[in-house]
Here is the input.
Amino acid sequence: AQPTRTTELWDHVHFTPGPELVADAVGATPIVVADGSLYLLQPNHPTAERLVANAPTFVALPPQPPRYLDRARAFAVGNALVLVGSTFEESKMVPMARLFDGAGWSDVVAPTDDVVSCAGAVSRDRALVITYAVVDEKIRTSARLFDVAKRSWSVAAPPSSPTTSCFVAEEGDGKATLFATVAIPDHGSATTATPLELRDGAHGPEVRWHEAKRLDEDALLPVLAHRFDGGWSVMALFRVDEPRDAWRYHAADFRREMFQPPRHAAYARPVAIDSTHLLFTGGYQPSGDEDRDRRHPTRVADATLLTFPDKLTALAPMGLPRTDHFAALLPDGRVVVGGGMTTVSKPNVHGVVGTTAAVLAPLGLLAALILAYWRTRPAWWALVLAVAAGALVDFAIFAYLAASAIHG
Here is the structure.
């Protein structure tokens, strides 16, 4: 497997080649769609790039500051692009916001030693950041608001249950839903959804939390949460290495519709098309042999469209098999899929070289003998020269084919 900078565009019928990336994009690459453009913001790489829709092409943005940023989440707040995560400050992990204002980047460190769990925009100028710390072997969860315009942090009311893994689903108008894996006393862990609102208080904006709703008895990994008009949100929950559960829910009354993801959904990239459709691209196809899948997983180019609640439709595949890629819905309704790791089929080097040598060596020797007999019948040294020349020709062809097999 190797990284690829290729992209593909899905027009709801086929995948067609898209513009090439400026740099590799492998793994959880934070994506922001704002102002009609798509931004790829890699928190631990200086490269950030923008997809210009009317070109279309990817254009490199000014390089990011060289500071490590863990668990980074990207979103647009006001006129700025914001990356929020944890960074090292005097040998400690602390929350930090990284802003891009169209001209350059700036980093703003929060005055706390907590570690970022998740973050998301909750208004036009503020982001909510959930953090945690381990105190006396217990998890303490905190919350802070980041004011983009003032580039300042303030303390906010935390969620009721401690969490180290969460996802903020932005809803607009000062509203959002926090999906979180929380500790339940005497019951282990569970996944919950907690609506929240940003309201004006006596000393500035305040976070008001509503009652949490338990959604699953297991601690799962939220990989997708997207809000659509009409009150429906699409949510996908996965174990680390296999599809487990996915659903959409209605924020007003927590109605849910469950579904089983497609078989290739392990490490696939789901993207919500609208409140009733979810597109899965790439991933690994299980063979039924767990040991083989663990040692030699089969990377696929499959694409599957889910129509809620339970209709799975196999689509025309992508041009390349992919895992660890990105997928995003563009403002014009198309989906861009790109980057990640792909499998490149190469010839069997030993087979090509061995077969070539077996065929060319006798032919070369025969040609040398005929040449020697035809040109210099009485001279034994000419025969030796001709054989040597034939061997050199064989070796040159052999080396060329071997190099071609290795590199291509």
User: Anything to note?
Assistant: Residues 346-359, 402-408 have pLDDT under 50 and may be disordered. Helices lie at 290-295, 349-375, 380-407.
